[in-house]
Design a protein that fits this description.
Helix 3 runs parallel beside helix 4 and helix 3 crosses helix 9. Strand 4, helix 6 and strand 5 form a beta-alpha-beta unit. About 45% of the residues lie in helices and about 20% in strands. It has a seven-stranded mixed beta sheet, sandwiched between helices. This is Class I SAM-dependent methyltransferase.
C-alpha cells in the first residue's frame, strides 16, 4: 500500500496548532518502536556533549520529530533538517518558528546530490530514509564528505530478515514507496566502508517482541486508515486496548539483543 497519502492526512490533521503538533510528536515517540531505538542511541551519543557547539544533519527529516527531540537536548546544537518534500519542509519550518526553536533550520534537498562544500556535521541522522533511495552509496559518500573527522552517522532502516513485511521472493513490500525490501547487515556495513567510513557497527531491531508490537501499533492501524478515514474515530479506542502490550513489547525489544530482526540500527564513524 502507499504510505505517503496516509502520512499526508496525518500531517494535515495534527498541523493545525502547535499544541496538536507537539501531541503528534509525543504519540510518535510512544508508538514507533524505531523511535525508542533512535532515542536510546542519541542519548548515549549525547553524553558529555550538551555544552559543545555541535552541528547535526537530520537527513530526511519528514515530520521533524527527531529534529524536535535533538533541539530540545541542547540549545548549543545547530540542526539542519533536510527533506525532498516541499510540504514537509514548509510545515516543519512554520511550526519550529512558532515555538521558538531557532537552533533548527529546514531546507529542501535531495540526498543523492546534497553535499556540504566543507566537513560540517558532527552527527548525521537518517531514519527510515535509505530504503527509499536507490543510489544509496552516493548518499553515503555525501554523508561522509559532509562530516567532520570523528563524526557519527546513525541509520535506522529495514533489514532483509523480513523488513517491510517481506518474507520471501514472491512477496512485495508492505510500503510501496520502498525501492528495496531491506538491507543485509553485512551489505550495508560494506557499502558504508566503500563510501569512506573507517568503522561501523550494526545490530538488529524489531526482534520477536518488536515484530508483534509493529503489527499491533502500526501495520493494522495503517491498513484500517487505508481502507477508510472513518477509522480515525476508532483509533483512540483501539490504542487504549493494545498500547499497554505494545509498551512492554517496545521495552523488551529496545533493551534486548536479537539474533535477527526486521530492522537495523547502523552506526558509522568518519
Amino acid at each position: 500500500m502507499q504510505y505517503d497519502p496516509i502520512k499526508r492526512v496525518l500531517g494535515e490533521a495534527f498541523n493545525k496548532t502547535p499544541f496538536l503538533r507537539k501531541l503528534f510528536y509525543n504519540l510518535l515517540d510512544l508508538l514507533l518502536l524505531r523511535t525508542w531505538h533512535i532515542h536510546k542511541e542519541l542519548r548515549a551519543w549525547a553524553k558529555n556533549k550538551r555544552q559543545q557547539p555541535i552541528q547535526i544533519l537530520d537527513a530526511g527529516s519528514g515530520f521533524g520529530q527527531y529534529s524536535y527531540y535533538l533541539s530540545g537536548l541542547s540549545p548549543n546544537w545547530r540542526i539542519l533538517a533536510v527533506d525532498v518534500k516541499d510540504e514537509q519542509i514548509a510545515d516543519c519550518a512554520n511550526f519550529f518558528q512558532k515555538i521558538g526553536r531557532h537552533n533548527v533550520m529546514f531546507r529542501k534537498e535531495d540526498l543523492v546530490t546534497y553535499r556540504e562544500p566543507q566537513p560540517t556535521f558532527d552527527l548525521v541522522l537518517s531514519v527510515d530514509v535509505m530504503e527509499h533511495i536507490l543510489e544509496d552509496v552516493e548518499v553515503f559518500k555525501n554523508f561522509h564528505a559532509s562530516m567532520r573527522p570523528g563524526g557519527m552517522l546513525l541509520i535506522s532502516t529495514p533489514s532483509d530478515q523480513g523488513g517491510s513485511d517481506v518474507h520471501g521472493d514472491e512477496e512485495s513490500s508492505f510500503i510501496e514507496e520502498h525501492v528495496r525490501d531491506g538491507y543485509n547487515i553485512q551489505e550495508i556495513q560494506q557499502k558504508l566502508k566503500s563510501a569512506g567510513f573507517s568503522r561501523t557497527e550494526a545490530h538488529y531491531s524489531y526482534g520477536s517482541p518488536g515484530k508483534i508490537s509493529w503489527r499491533l501499533s502500526m501495520k493494522y492501524p495503517i491498513l484500517m486508515l487505508g481502507a477508510s478515514k472513518l477509522f480515525f474515530l476508532l483509533l483512540p479506542f483501539y490504542y487504549l486496548l493494545v498500547y499497554p502490550f505494545c509498551l512492554l513489547l517496545n521495552w523488551l525489544d529496545t533493551n534486548g539483543k536479537h539474533p535477527t530482526g526486521t530492522g537495523l540500527i547502523v552506526k558509522a564513524w568518519k
